[in-house]
Amino acid sequence: MSLRWVTVTGWVVWPVIVVCLVMGVTLGWREPLMLGCALGLVALLGLTVLRRRALLSVSFAASVIRVVPGTSAEVRLRLTNETRRTSSGTDLDIPVGSGTRTERVPRLSVGVTHETLLVVEAPRRTVIPVGPVSVVRRDPFGLYRRSVTLPGTAKVVVHPDTATLPPLSAGFVRDLEGEASRDLTDSDLSFHALREYVPGDDRRHIHWKSSAKTGRFMIRQYEQTRRSRMLILLDTRREAYVDDVEFELAVSTAASLGVRALRDSRDVMFVVSRSSVVARPVRAGRANLQNEETMDVLTSVSPARLLDDVAGITLTASSLPMGGLTPLAAGVATDVSVVFAVTGSVAGFSDIEQASLPFGAGVEVVALRCDVESAPRLRSSGRLTVGTVGRLDDLTKLLSRNRATA
What we know:
Order of helices and strands: HHEEEEEEEEEEEEHEEHEHEHHEHEEEH
CATH topology of the largest domain: Rossmann fold
Helix content: 25-40%
Distance between the termini: 75 Å
Strand order of the largest sheet: 16-15-14-17-18-20-19
Structural class: alpha/beta
Shape: elongated
Number of strands: 20
Largest sheet: 7 strands, mixed
CATH class of the largest domain: Alpha Beta
Radius of gyration: 33 Å
Number of domains: 4
């Protein structure tokens, strides 16, 4: 027996038993002695019930249930009696988010499976953990309560709202299926022109037919191709947003861009800043601020996996500002061709312009300021484009407008 099994009622009854037995024995009072013996018998009988363990196995029909805000998720829980005897009825304590639900399981024969359906409301973007499940056994008198936690968990992932965007072609440096860059090289796949041979050139690239015509060695020259990798930066500072509604608009905006790029078969890197900056002693030649301590790179292998990670993003009070996050991201994502930086309405144009400086001259930077119910507009300055998003539907208009002017 463990003291953790005793309920509040049990803690009251056991002292009464002791007092009644002591009074009956020392004072010779028959009534307290009989009451103490009766209560002691009840307490012992209740204890024997708990010693029989209910060996049930728990499994979820799906470990991840994905829904959108404003709907409900159905979590199916299966319990199987794996003992050699019929299990008695028992209760299940199922943690769902910050609360706990209690479900009654009937008597189960050997090998029989019972299915329980949990309906979980999903009013907003979040991740709701479900489980682990605890099998609860109680004695008939309410003196004891034994809980056994079983392995197995699931989660309800409420994805953010996303917009249906056109292909993100504007601003990209194409890969082999698209256009080449303006950077010239002596070895690639996109032919540009011929030039005269200079000492040090690779003779394998000599164009012999042109050399025979001109009487001089001519070298093939190519336009360097790059992969169209996209970097998405999401500002998670509480100071950058007026309220939670504005932050949710920013999350949906960044998520929409990531989903569209993945559907376009682009390489996507989705970066958010962590809640704090931790400085550690480091080896010589390394920065004091570690990238892995100041930013998180979300999973971007598929739209569903990306939205799973985006569902868990929250506002933080001490994360890096956009101007501190971009140098770290630029150091990791060295081969990007376009950057989308999403922030709130508090950020000014000068702050955004300063944050775009760490990226090279061949990278187009598009900053999107989320300002709820504001009119959509674009402002360009060199390779930096700043757009204002008032509603999620405005994102499609802004990208189409940028595409038309690109």
